[in-house]
Each structure stands twice: as C-alpha cells, then as structure tokens.
Amino acid sequence: MERLLWKNRLIPALELLLAALVIWGSFAPIPFGNTVGLLLLASASLWLRGAGWGDIGMRRPKSWLRVIAWGVALGVAAQVFDVRVTTPLLARISGHAPDLSGFRSLIGNVRQLLFWLAVTWTIAAFGEEMAYRGYILNRAADLFRGTQVAWVFATIVSCACFALGHRYQGIAGMIDIAVSAFIPVIVYLLSGRNLCIPILMHGVGDTIGFVLIFFHRYPGV
User: What angle do CA 74, 141, 79 make, to 5 degrees?
Assistant: First the structure.
C-alpha cells in the first residue's frame, strides 16, 4: 500500500517537474513553444493513464448559452479589472508596469492584430487553458489525492507555472499573471471542472487586450 501511494505521488511529481522544465525552456512573448510542449506532455500522460481530455475538462457543456454569457462577462470584467486596477496598482507599488514591449509592433498594425487574434483563439485560449488549468492543475491535485488541501496547493502551482510561462513580462507582469490566473481556476472548479467557460473567458480577455494595444491604449506598451 505504501509503495503504491509513493508511486501515485512520484509520477505526477515527475510530470510537474518536466512541465516546469518545458515552460522554462521556452522564453519568448509567443506562447507557441511552452504551450505546445505542455500539450504534448499532457496528451502522453493521459494516454498512458488510459484517460482523455474529456476527463479533465474538454467536455460539451449542458448549456452553451450559459457558457457564452459567463465566458464573455467574465472575460470583459477580468480584463477591465486588470487594466484599471491590477496593473496600475502593481506599477505604483513596484515602480514598474508589466513589460509588454514585445507587442509594440502590434500598435496600428492590422496584420499583427489579426495574427495575435488567431493566436488568441487557438494556442492561448484553448491551448493554455488545456495545459495549465486542465493538465497541470489536475496533476498537482493528484499529488495529494484530490483533497481540498490538494486543490489549494494545485491552484498555487498552476498559477505559478502560468506566471513562469509569461516571465518575458518581468516581475510585475508575472505577479499580474499569477493573480489573474486565480480567476479561471476558480471558474473551472465551480463549473464542475469544465474548461469551456475558462476558454471563452481567456479568449475574450486577450482579444480586448490586443485591441487595446492596437489602439495604443494598454498600460506598459
């Protein structure tokens, strides 16, 4: 029994370590490398355990209307709160806003806007939610067999990993990302561990962000 318990904890621990290495190995303001790497790792992990993406949240919701309503509302609210409250507060406390200088080429550039919107609704909204909320969050919870304490621990791990994947934004940006990441985690758990609302919320929020950058109205750009 002790050997089985040790094995059940060792494997997810090794997966989380490997996930952290994948995230650390991709350092760029383009979420291709780390997200794709995490999705490959997650797919292999699920296959070896005889599970699928549906087991960790990629399931059809009971009501698409509810998903759209909550996803859009939360996406708008989260982005407005970030621009109006979190980012200015971090800038005031630390003296630095999140470093989004890598996106300056997007200002007034329609092609860049279309490119980033395409990234938003594929790799960012779907890929990052599947990787960080679907895979990392659940594997971290598996370390302590899915207890309430396990989910608290898993939430911290998931948010920290998400922040690490955005370290090109500097310390202020990582703190901003970590704080913002708590919202989709809570939404995911409250919706019965379904990824639909977090995915839509993520896509709407990033879309607003890139449109604001396009019009040069986003702090730190």
Answer: 15
Amino acid code (one letter) for 129: E
Q: Are 173 and 100 in contact (CB under 8 A)?
A: yes
Convert the pLDDT of each residue in 33-79 to its tens digit.
789 999 999 999 999 999 999 999 999 999 999 999 999 999 999 99
Residue 51 lies in a domain: yes
Single-letter amino acid code for the residue at 144: F
Structure pTM? 0.92
Q: How far apart are CA 29 and CA 26, in angstroms?
A: 9
- Report the number of distinct structural domains present in the chain: 1
Does residue 17 lie within any of the structural domains? yes
Helices 110-119/196-214 angle, 10° precision: 170
On whether the CB atoms of residues 12 and 142 are closer than 8 A, the answer is: yes
Contacts of 46 (CB under 8 A, 6+ apart): 52, 53, 55, 56
Residue 219 in any domain: the answer is no
Give the three-class secondary structure for 219. Answer: coil
d(CA 36, CA 30): 11
